[in-house]
Amino acid sequence: MAADREFLNRIPYFSGLGPVELDGIRKLIFEKTFERGQMILIEGESAEALYFVASGVVRVFKTSIEGKEQILNMVRPRESFNDVPIFDGDPNPASAQAMGPVVLYGIRRRNVEAILRDHPRVALNVIKVLAARVRDLVSLVEDLSFRHVIGRVAKILLEHAGDGTAPLPRLTQQEMAAMAGTAREVVGRSLKALEEEGAIRLDRHRIVITDKEALREIMEAPS
């Protein structure tokens, strides 16, 4: 699957570029594929390329010395990851893993630098992307600091439901725990509580949202 011009123009990095500019960037892109569970990046290793998700979902996470995981971001189509080490030259600050079959478009560091020099519009787009990323991290800190676990779980369910335009991989309770900054057993109890509130239905290995508004109220309830 080659990176087509229309797809590139929908990537925030390249928004607003003309056909000739996009065609020049296409020549610098390489493609990689991964299966569910495959590691894409390892925390602490050198960063070789900036990646954009063409299809699938990638989870970006930190791991403590004890092996506890904290998911920082779930990266979906047209979104980027590994931006920071490409720009500051330091090692990967987090690991990345495929949540299912994933296709990535990559641009090597030296080519990213050339694109920024040649296309000032891209540099402005990058500032906006990184500013949004900072807001997301501030929101994560806020959730971990001030929101009850059940509220965090409700938020994860609402966000992972998406807009219905593309299928998303199922989250395990362990993955939800890594996103919520808690233990799998606590997530299990929270899901049971949400079911008792009528917000969701636990259907074997599926979680069905039955009352989005109730779920949103639980998410927004003060701690």
Automatic annotation (TrEMBL):
Q: Which UniProt keywords apply?
A: DNA-binding, Transcription, Transcription regulation
InterPro entries linked: cNMP-bd_dom, cNMP-bd_dom_sf, Env_Response_Regulators, HTH_CRP, RmlC-like_jellyroll, WH-like_DNA-bd_sf, WH_DNA-bd_sf
- Annotated Cyclic nucleotide-binding domain residues: 13-116
All copies of the HTH crp-type domain together span 147-213
| SMART domains linked | cNMP, HTH_CRP
State the Gene3D superfamilies in the record.
Jelly Rolls, Winged helix-like DNA-binding domain superfamily/Winged helix DNA-binding domain
Q: In which domain of life is the source organism classified? A: Bacteria
Question: What protein name applies here?
Answer: Crp/Fnr family transcriptional regulator
* Source organism of the structure: Aerophobetes bacterium
Write the lineage as a comma-separated list: Bacteria, Candidatus Aerophobota
